[in-house]
């Protein structure tokens, strides 16, 4: 008996079993899916009591205006460029379109879009990961309405993007920053990311001024949602409008223009071809 008691004393207590880091141990929830991806920018509708980012883009008044100005998109085919985290997609989906092709190049943003789709039941949308310009070049789809909010000023070739988009979309909503000397003169801190180089590109006979800009390493942050290349270009305000008109958008309605925006002068507009009827 004595030997058995000594054996028990020598027996070491069991160590807790290792649980791999890639597994979630909590009660299954939507919040777990959100927490699995870092860098959220957008908030979810308040009634869901979920914690993500801070931007309430699920109720963006710019998109509300665009859809009201364009007219009903029920049964329409929609293209969304740069959905970020799917909140504008949610707004589009709520208007009962036939289908939404939503193209995102940022891998983390794309994965966050998939989480948003699951949580908000965005059944009409197909999120695709990749370069929108290659999508526009290689496919023959025509869209009734396109949404390109926060996209143009991140492009390495913004004029070419508009040219490709115009070949596929009968109407487009754009929110973008632009360059305007009188609104952002020398000494304005908003000019710091600009190199000072200005290039000229001719598209459809329209000379476009390209103002070179850098992200200054902002892409190192998980919440970065800019363009694919550090070297990108802003267009001049007037050149954007001239090119859109040249590309067949005969009806251009500007919603607002904010020359004092902290990120740089900006405006939002709806451009529509004569053939585009709501």
Explain what you see.
- This protein is an alpha/beta fold and 278 residues long.
- It is 26% helix and 23% strand.
- It has a single domain, classed as Vaccinia Virus protein VP39 (Rossmann fold, 3-Layer(aba) Sandwich), CATH 3.40.50.
- Strands 3-2-1-4-5-10-9 form a seven-stranded mixed β-sheet, sandwiched between helices. A three-stranded antiparallel β-sheet has the order 6-7-8.
- The protein is globular.
- The model has no long low-confidence stretch (mean pLDDT 92).
Q: Total helix count?
A: 8
- Gyration radius over CA: 24 Å
Low-confidence stretches: none
Q: Can you say what the CATH homologous superfamily is? A: Vaccinia Virus protein VP39
Average residue-wise pLDDT: 92
Q: State which percent range the strand residues make up.
A: 15-25%
- Largest sheet descriptor: 7 strands, mixed
Task: Strand order, main sheet: write it out.
Answer: 3-2-1-4-5-10-9
* Corresponding CATH architecture: 3-Layer(aba) Sandwich
Number of domains: 1
- From the N-terminal CA to the C-terminal CA, the straight-line distance is 92 Å
Question: Mind sketching the topology for me?
Answer:
Layout: H1 2-10, H2 30-35, H3 61-70, E1 77-81, H4 87-93, E2 99-104, H5 107-120, E3 125-129, H6 132-138, E4 145-149, H7 158-166, E5 171-177, E6 194-203, E7 206-213, E8 232-235, H8 237-246, E9 251-258, E10 266-272
Task: Quickly list its features.
278 residues; alpha/beta; Rossmann fold; seven-stranded mixed β-sheet; three-stranded antiparallel β-sheet; 23% strand; Class I SAM-dependent methyltransferase; methyltransferase activity; SAM-dependent_MTases_sf; transferase
């Amino acid at each position: 008996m004595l030997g058995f008691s000594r054996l028990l004393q020598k027996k070491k207590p069991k160590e807790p079993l290792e649980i791999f880091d890639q597994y979630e141990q909590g009660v299954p929830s939507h919040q777990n899916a959100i927490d699995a991806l870092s860098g959220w920018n957008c908030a979810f509708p308040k009634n869901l009591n979920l914690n993500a980012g801070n931007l309430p883009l699920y109720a963006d008044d710019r998109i509300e205006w665009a859809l009201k100005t364009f007219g009903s998109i029920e049964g329409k085919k929609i293209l969304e460029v740069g959905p970020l985290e799917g909140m504008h997609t949610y707004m589009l989906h709520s208007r009962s379109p036939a289908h939404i092709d939503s193209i995102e190049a940022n891998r983390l943003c794309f994965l966050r879009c998939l989480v948003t789709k699951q949580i908000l039941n965005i059944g009409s949308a197909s999120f695709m990961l990749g370069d929108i310009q290659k999508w526009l070049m290689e496919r023959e789809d025509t869209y009734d309405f396109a949404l390109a909010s926060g996209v143009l000023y991140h492009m390495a070739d913004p004029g070419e993007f508009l040219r490709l988009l115009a070949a596929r979309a009968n109407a487009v909503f754009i929110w973008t920053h632009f360059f305007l000397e009188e609104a952002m003169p020398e000494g304005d801190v908003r000019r710091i990311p600009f190199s000072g180089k200005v290039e000229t590109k001719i598209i459809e006979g329209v000379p476009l001024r390209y103002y070179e800009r850098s992200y200054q390493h902002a892409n190192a942050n998980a919440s970065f949602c800019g363009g694919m290349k550090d070297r990108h270009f802003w267009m001049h305000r007037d050149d954007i409008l001239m090119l859109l008109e040249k590309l067949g958008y005969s009806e251009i309605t500007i919603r607002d223009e904010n020359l004092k925006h902290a990120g740089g002068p900006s405006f939002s507009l709806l451009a529509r071809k004569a053939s585009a009827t709501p």
